[in-house]
Design goal:
By secondary structure, the chain is mainly beta. The chain has one domain: Roll (PH-domain like), CATH 2.30.29. The chain is about 10% helix and about 55% strand. Strands 1, 2, 3, 4, 5, 6, 7, 8 and 9 form a nine-stranded antiparallel β-sheet that branches. The longest helix is centred in the N-terminal third of the chain and has 13 residues. It is globular, with a radius of gyration of 13 Å. It starts with a strand and ends with a strand.
Length: about 110
């Protein structure tokens, strides 16, 4: 699955465009504590959007029942397949990897 790295100046516009095109999307959030091998995970739940606040340097993932915030992201990778965006992998300032996986890829 090809991966594309986003740079910080791209975050806000990329996530805004992605969120505007959502229709009945379902996602799963997985948080991996690098080096500790701890893992937290949600089941697939309705996904409403993702945004970047440049003044706070934080990414917000908005799902049903969950508003997940990632402060000071170090890296953002988008995983794509032949039908669209399958996942977004974010390494936060705390070193944890946050993986947002879509049940059905989002057309890009």
């Amino acid at each position: 699955m090809p991966r594309k790295k986003l740079e910080e100046p791209e975050y806000e516009a990329y996530f805004d465009t992605l969120s505007k095109g959502l229709k009945n999307q379902v996602a799963e959030i997985e948080i991996i504590a690098v080096g500790i091998m701890d893992k937290e995970q949600t089941d697939y739940i309705p996904f409403y959007g993702i945004s970047y606040d440049p003044s706070e340097k934080s990414i917000s993932i908005i799902c049903e029942y969950i508003d997940h915030r990632i402060k000071k992201p170090r890296e953002v990778w988008v995983k794509e397949n032949e039908t669209g965006i399958a996942a977004i992998e974010i390494t936060g300032g705390d070193g944890y990897t946050h993986l947002l996986k879509f049940k059905e890829p989002i057309a890009g």
